[in-house]
Write a structure and sequence with these properties.
Helix content is 54%, strand content 10%. The longest helix has 17 residues. The radius of gyration is 12 Å and the shape is globular. Bound molecules: zinc ion. Zinc ion binds next to loops.
Length: 78
């Protein structure tokens, strides 16, 4: 298991996501941003919009996705 925070994934807070793969933590962040949006948390809106844009334009998001995967791969195991 490895840990990435909301901030590592472009968000504004230090909530930690744990996962076996980069996709796990990206999905956890996606859920976290959705929940924040629902709760009316304006501080997460920018990150939420960016994430939404990535799902909509997966080709354009490739750079971010690759960088996040690399960052995850470089992390030590928990
Ligand atoms: Zn957050």
């Amino acid at each position: 298991m490895k840990t990435m925070t909301c901030r590592d994934l472009g968000g504004p807070c230090d909530l930690a996501h744990h996962g076996e793969s980069a996709d796990d933590v990206i999905n956890a962040q996606d859920q976290h941003l959705k929940a924040a949006e629902k709760a009316g948390d304006a501080s997460h809106q920018e990150a939420r919009d960016a994430m939404k844009g990535r799902w909509r334009h997966p080709k354009r998001a490739m750079g971010w996705y690759k960088a996040t995967k690399q960052a995850f791969a470089d992390l030590p195991d928990d």
